[in-house]
C-alpha cells in the first residue's frame, strides 16, 4: 500500500505526473494522460500559453489581494474549479469522493461527471453545502437525460454543465493499444446503475447481468443526433443555469447565446476529442468577443501553473477548470493529493497576481499580457 508522507508531496506539476505514472498501470495512466490521434492538440494546449508573456506592474501596494469571484450565485474563493472527470475509480479506490472532499474542504467548486464511478448523490453527500455543479452527458434516451438533471437539482447541484464535444469517444490510440476502456469493465457508470430511467431499459437488473447493463450503457451514453433546437427541451427539465462545455468556434458561441445558454466553457476536452483542434487558449479571445460579456466565458485544457491561469483571465476567461493535474494528485495521495495540487496551483496564482501588481481579478486584463513573438 502506497502511503505518502504529506510533508513530502511534490510541488512541481511534472513530479506529480511522474509519480502517478509510477503508481498506475499502463491502462489507467494512459487513459488519463493521453489524448486523441497524434496528440497534437494536447501539445498545442501547452504551447499556446508559452506564446503569451505577462507584463508585470510594480509599486502598486499588493499587500491585500482579493481573488474572490461571484459566479451563478456562488461566491468562490478564486476563479478556479475542478473539471468534470469520469471513472476516477481507475485512479484511486475513493475516486470522485476523494476529489469532491478535497474540493469541498477548500470551497473550490467540483463539477461531478455523468460518467462518475460514484453516483451524483454520494458525491453531493460528501460535499455538504460546498459549491458543486453537475456535468451532463446528454443520453440518447431522453428519460435518462431528464432524470439525471432532476436528480442533480434535487441533490443540491447549482448548475448543469452540458458537454457537447463528446457524443462519442474520439480515436484514442493509447486506449486502443492497451485494449482499455474503463466502462467496459463496469467503471464510471454509477449514475446509470442507480437511475430508474436507465434501469427501466434493462430486461434484467444490473445486479443479475452486469454485462447486459454495460452494453445498454454503450447504447445510451451519447447522443450524436442533438442540435441547438434541443436545448429548449433541456431547459424545461430545470431552472438551474445551463453552461455549454466544449465550444471552440465563435459562431457556436453566438448560437449558445441565441439558444439561451447561461455560460460557456471554451475547451477541447484536454486534447482528447478532435486531434488538430485549436488550442483552447487560442480559441478564447474570439469567443469572448463574440459573447460580448453577455454570459461568463470559462476555459480549460492545458492549465498547469499560476501563470497559465493569469493568462487565461487576461484573455477574458472569468474562471478556469483544472483537469489532469487533480488526477495525478488523486493517484499519488488521494484526497490529500488533490488538495495539495490545488493548493500549490492557487498559491502560485496568488503570487503571480501579487508580483504582477494585481490586487483584484478585474485588474487582470488584455493590457497585462503581450504575444511572445512580437
Ligand atoms: C480522464 C479524463 C476523463 C474526463 N472525463 C470527462 C467527463 O466525464 N466529462 C467532461 O465533460 N469532460 C471530461 N474530461 C475533460 C475535462 O473535463 C477537461 O475538459 C480536461 O481534462 C481539461 O484539460 P486538462 O486535463 O489539460 O486540464 C475528462 C478528462 C480526462 C483527462
Ligand atoms: O474520457 C473522457 O474524456 C470522457 O469524457 C469520458 C466519457 C465517458 C466516460 C468516461 C469518460
Automatic annotation (TrEMBL):
Question: Where are the catalytic residues?
Answer: 269 (proton acceptor)
Indicate the family of this protein: Belongs to the FMN-dependent alpha-hydroxy acid dehydrogenase family.
| Top enzyme category | oxidoreductase
Q: Which PROSITE patterns match?
A: FMN_HYDROXY_ACID_DH_1, FMN_HYDROXY_ACID_DH_2
Coiled-coil residues: none
Q: Which residues form the FMN hydroxy acid dehydrogenase domain?
A: 5-374
Q: Where is the signal peptide?
A: none
Cofactor field = FMN
Q: Which InterPro entries match?
A: Aldolase_TIM, Alpha-hydoxy_acid_DH_FMN, FMN-dep_DH, FMN_HAD, FMN_hydac_DH_AS, LMO_FMN
Q: What is this protein called?
A: L-lactate oxidase
- Entry's Gene Ontology molecular function annotations: (S)-2-hydroxy-acid oxidase activity; FMN binding; monooxygenase activity
* Its EC number(s): 1.1.3.15
Query: For this protein, what reaction is catalysed?
Result: 2-hydroxyoctadecanoate + O2 = 2-oxooctadecanoate + H2O2; (S)-lactate + O2 = pyruvate + H2O2; mandelate + O2 = phenylglyoxylate + H2O2; 2-hydroxyoctanoate + O2 = 2-oxooctanoate + H2O2
Q: Which CDD domains does its entry note?
A: LMO_FMN
> Which of UniProt's keywords are assigned here?
Flavoprotein, FMN, Oxidoreductase
- Which residues take part in binding glyoxylate? 31, 137, 172, 269, 272
Question: What's the source species' lineage?
Answer: Bacteria, Bacillati, Bacillota, Bacilli, Bacillales
Please tell me where FMN binds in this chain: 84-86, 113, 135, 163, 245, 267, 300-304, 323-324
Amino acid at each position: 500500500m502506497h502511503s505518502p508522507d504529506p510533508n513530502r508531496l511534490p510541488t512541481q506539476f511534472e513530479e506529480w505526473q511522474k509519480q502517478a505514472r509510477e503508481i498506475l498501470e499502463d491502462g489507467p495512466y494512459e487513459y488519463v494522460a493521453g489524448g486523441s490521434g497524434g496528440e497534437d492538440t494536447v501539445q498545442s494546449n501547452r504551447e499556446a500559453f508559452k506564446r503569451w508573456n505577462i507584463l508585470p506592474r510594480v509599486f502598486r501596494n499588493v499587500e491585500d489581494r482579493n481573488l474572490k469571484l461571484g459566479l451563478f450565485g456562488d461566491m468562490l474563493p478564486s476563479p478556479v474549479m475542478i473539471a468534470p472527470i469520469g471513472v476516477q475509480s481507475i485512479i484511486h479506490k475513493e475516486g470522485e469522493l476523494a476529489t469532491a472532499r478535497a474540493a469541498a474542504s477548500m470551497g473550490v467548486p467540483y463539477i461531478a461527471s455523468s460518467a462518475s464511478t460514484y453516483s451524483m448523490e454520494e458525491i453531493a453527500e460528501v460535499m455538504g453545502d460546498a459549491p458543486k455543479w453537475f456535468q451532463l452527458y446528454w443520453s440518447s434516451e431522453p428519460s435518462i437525460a431528464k432524470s439525471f438533471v432532476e436528480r442533480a437539482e434535487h441533490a443540491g447541484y447549482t448548475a448543469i454543465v452540458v458537454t457537447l464535444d463528446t457524443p462519442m469517444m474520439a480515436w484514442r490510440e493509447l486506449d486502443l493499444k492497451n485494449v482499455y476502456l474503463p466502462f467496459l469493465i463496469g467503471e464510471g457508470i454509477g449514475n446509470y446503475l442507480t437511475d430508474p430511467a436507465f434501469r427501466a431499459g434493462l430486461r434484467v437488473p444490473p445486479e443479475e447481468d452486469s454485462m447486459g447493463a454495460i452494453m445498454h450503457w454503450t447504447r445510451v451514453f451519447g447522443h450524436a443526433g442533438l442540435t441547438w433546437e434541443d436545448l429548449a427541451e433541456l431547459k424545461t427539465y430545470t431552472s438551474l443555469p445551463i453552461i455549454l462545455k466544449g465550444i471552440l468556434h465563435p459562431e457556436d458561441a453566438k448560437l449558445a447565446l441565441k439558444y439561451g445558454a447561461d455560460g460557456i466553457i471554451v475547451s477541447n476536452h484536454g486534447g482528447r476529442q478532435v486531434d488538430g483542434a485549436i488550442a483552447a487558449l487560442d480559441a478564447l479571445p474570439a469567443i469572448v468577443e463574440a459573447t460580448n460579456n453577455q454570459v461568463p466565458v470559462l476555459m480549460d485544457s492545458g492549465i498547469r501553473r499560476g501563470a497559465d491561469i493569469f493568462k487565461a483571465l487576461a484573455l477574458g476567461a472569468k474562471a478556469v477548470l483544472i483537469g489532469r493535474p487533480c488526477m495525478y494528485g488523486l493517484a499519488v495521495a488521494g484526497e490529500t493529493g488533490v488538495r495539495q495540487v490545488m493548493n500549490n496551483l492557487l498559491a502560485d496564482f496568488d503570487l503571480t497576481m501579487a508580483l504582477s501588481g494585481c490586487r483584484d481579478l478585474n485588474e487582470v486584463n488584455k493590457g497585462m499580457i503581450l504575444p511572445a513573438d512580437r
